[in-house]
Amino acid sequence: MRYDSPLAAVGNTPLVCLPRLSPSADVRIWAKLEDRNPTGSVKDRPALHMIEQAEKDGRLTPGCTILEPTSGNTGISLAMAAKLKGYRMVCVMPENTSQERRDLLGMWGAEIISSPAAGGSNTAVRVAKELSAEHPDWVMLYQYGNPDNAGAHYATTGPEILADLPSITHFVAGLGTTGTLMGVGRYLRENKPDVKIVAAEPRYDDLVYGLRNLDEGFVPELYDASVLTTRFSVGSADAVTRTRELLQQEGIFAGVSTGAALHAAIGVGNKAVKAGEPADIAFVVADGGWKYLSTGVYTAATTEEAIETLQGQLWA
Amino acid sequence: MAIEVRIPTILRTYTDGQKAVEGTGDTLAELFADLETRHAGIQARIVDNGELRRFVNVYLNDEDVRFLEGINTKVADGDNVTILPAVAGGMA
Fold it and tell me: Which SUPFAM superfamilies does the record cross-reference, listed alphabetically (chain B) (predicted)?
């Protein structure tokens, strides 16, 4: 494959079957390898699409400053595109996110404003909204409410998956901004009405809930519950266990939120086996494990130790 | 075999501090009624007027029962039920 520039190489990622983790011969699990994007995550798609649409609308003009609340990946994608396109990039990120993410953002020239750990991403969103009000000339693309976030997946991720897997029965992805699920979900529904759209939500332990108990419940503006068929809540222990199984059984080195999506994919797969129905389940590998190496979940001797090391940390 | 029910911190006053208890029943409603016989007071914290309380989430094998059949969702031996206070999260 040949492209005219690095930004043109966003998308067109491989879809691979996971023969060892699939529950049976006719209930198969497929991984959409979004870590193969230029900056290593699925967020390259919405970031580039949001920038390009804002350029088309005239909201983004040369020399502009882009502002975004992000726990990492969207910021990294925006920072890379901003660098190449000549924009200044400011990210608002919870103070308790991993050092790798800060280093990556800095590497592509983004400035980081830390938001308090309490409230996690929700607090980052609030702080970014305040900054946006103080700096009306800054352009906040706002992934949680920007229809071009879901639009990127409607235009690219959805069609790619359906072309590669016309027999798809389930699509599974993490629920954060909800952009992936809304965009791919709508596209698949229009073209394959019986398809099931499954969300995997992170469930933190009591310690992290303690950190987050100042939260007002925050529902992204993009979220439309009617697109979803069902929703799984995946605890840290299951997310870590599946992340390590994916590495050990299929050789795929993915981030911890991918383990959560895989857990939900295996959950719907087991239900299909019980019901005696064949299934082709596609789930999103949102990013590789590189940015989370310092958590110790990959290098711990046992899964029990790995689960222990992640206690109290935000992993998605 | 029975159904394992994971209890959030906020409701552990009803379970002598236990993080998980066991119960039986064919539906979630029956399961919560069964828990009430050993953990008096817990049912009213989960169920209100025959429906799940608004700020309580219940998961059957990690799946949100509001997307299944709510309090009438069928359960069976070996299933795992998790009760959690509702909190929204972020993953971006």
Answer: MoaD/ThiS (SSF54285)
